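pasting input
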Amino acid sequence: MSSVVDKVWATLEPLTDPEIPVVTLRELGILRDVRETPTGLEVVITPTYSGCPAMGQIEDDVRASLEQAGIEARVITQLAPAWTTDWMSDEAKEKLRAYGIAPPHRTCGSRAGAGEVSVLKFVRRQPTEPVACPQCGSTHTVVTSEFGSTACKALYKCLDCQEPFDYFKPY
Amino acid sequence: MSTPIDYLLHLADNAVVLGQRNAEWCGHGPILEEDMALANVSLDLIGQARLLYQRAAELMGGDATEDKLAYFRGPHEFRNYTLLELPHHGALVGYAAADRDYATTIVRNFLYSALMVHVWDGLQQSADPALAAIAAKSLKETSYHLHHSRDWLVRMGDGTEESHARAQAAVNHLMPYTEEFWTTSPAEGAAVAAKVAIDVWALRPAWDALVNDALAEATLTRPNFHGYITEGKIGLHSEHLSYLLGEMQGLARAHPGATW
């Protein structure tokens, strides 16, 4: 990795999600790549949910940081491969939990493969692992609503400590 | 090149029109959680529409932009299913005599997302790589929309006498409009031939199975259909679309190029 690419990564490292300021864009998997091309440096970001209103802010933050550091680079938004919560590191998940948001379970294997005929494949099954309360750790929890304060979270309630909490949905 | 563009507009118009409709619940939800849920569903739909309009504008070239496609086309140029432009109520009599009937909202979201999970799943193999990428994202979001609407459908159908009656009235009102899913428009036919789209007709058994399973669990009855098949996707709409677009496009048309 060239030193200029390293410098871009280092410059963008402090940037966090505007809605969840404890995890960085890199840890969330939004900041995908920094590369040198014949026509200049490119910073690749990928949107989380299609309509996530934080994406505009995130792109602005990336541009502003690059400008401040005197780095000339294009910011490219790339859709494929589609962002997934599986890209989140264990470290990032622990930060979410400490912040009061239950981290997402892995999505791998939760959906039938392409071409597989299964009429019920899109219908919810009972989650294999229960969602643990980020406050008291109890797995005695219940979903209040599939949609929470942002598109990426669901609302849960802990039946032991009675605290409501956000669950970062597997995507 | 007009073939994929017309098909992209059909998908984009579906998403933006239903997104606009569902957003009418913002601040008026029956409970706080559902107010937020519907706003989130709308955000997803409008986000999907933006990606699709951006792709269409890119293919059209010239001075086409996502905003021009969303705000400066008239009702006859919109290619959405008629189902999606209808108000949140059936005939203003009996159980559905309300400006916004939540059962109508839920049943529509269920019928549409039960179709779209299969459409997006198939479109991941589209010959247009940009559409395939949008489909992969949209599938994840639409799966949550389906969970949400199916949950409420069952809760209402298998709920109280009144919630059951209202859910059944909504099913009776909306189900005939789903016949439009299964007729092939010229844009769809051409996109299928170009391998950009998938044949929706082939998805019918899977959709039927999802719908029948949910209706059975909700103790609701599926009405028989015999009648007129709507043609929103070829630009022949109900009167409701003009009012919806009037509200959605008014600001952009009164102040072209406005920013804030």
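fyi Residues 32-60 of chain B form the longest helix (29 residues).
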